[in-house]
Amino acid sequence: MTRVNTKDRIMQAALKLFMQQGYQKTSIARIESAAGLVSRAGAFYRHFDSKQALLEELARAYVSETPGEFEFDRLADYRDTRAELVAIALKYEEAMNRQKPYARLIEEIRLLDFGGDLQDELNADMLDGLEAWIKEKPAAKSMSRKRRSALVISVMGGWLFYLSLVGQSALVGPLRDTLLDEWATRWASILDTG
């Protein structure tokens, strides 16, 4: 087997174990065994410096979203702020649905000593992508980067709050469409005002 295949086997085995029994209760020896490797023979460390490094790579591969996946660079093709907001909102909804199976693991990561730093790192790229998009809007053109970042958080906060409610209840269907329409229309009118 090639190193890539071994690394992939380790990652798949670790993800399954982390989801079943949690990160902290999963040993490297158990990951090696589940990946079909000889425990404590060193194969794990040829691919990862530590269990934390493995978790960080898994988070980047399976849990986090990237500006490329959200196609921020293509938003200008819409030529309409409201349509851009709807596109972003729908991408976040897709991402949240994709992340549902990992919800317990995501919560455990947040509670780890390094979890906050990892989450900040993963969120930084998305914030940069959203900030680059919003800085072209009339309302944000004269703002400092710090203020634009705060504006991004304000804009996206409402939609993310709605998505968190959907995950906990039956807020779907016509209510979702109405909320999306109201949210996008309101923020588009604010962002397009110079």
3D architecture notes:
It is a single chain. Helix 6 (81-99) crosses helix 10 and helix 7 crosses helix 8. The protein has helices at residues 3-21, 28-34, 43-47, 51-63, 67-70, 81-99, 103-111, 115-134, 145-168, 174-191. The protein folds into 2 domains: 3-54, Arc Repressor Mutant, subunit A (Orthogonal Bundle), CATH 1.10.10.60; 64-191. 23% of the residues are buried. By secondary structure, it is mainly alpha-helical. It contains 10 helices and no strands.
Write the layout of secondary structure elements.
Blueprint: H1 3-21, H2 28-34, H3 43-47, H4 51-63, H5 67-70, H6 81-99, H7 103-111, H8 115-134, H9 145-168, H10 174-191
Key descriptive features of the protein:
single chain; 194 residues; mainly alpha; Arc Repressor Mutant, subunit A; 10 helices
Mean pLDDT, rounded to whole units?
87
Strand content: under 5%
Radius of gyration based on Cα positions? 20 Å
Approximate shape: elongated
So how many helices? 10
Largest sheet: none
Distance between the termini: 59 Å
Question: pLDDT below 50 for ≥5 consecutive residues: which ranges?
Answer: none
- Overall domain count: 2
Secondary-structure element pattern, one letter each: HHHHHHHHHH
Compact description:
This protein has 194 residues and is mostly helical. The radius of gyration is 20 Å and the shape is elongated.
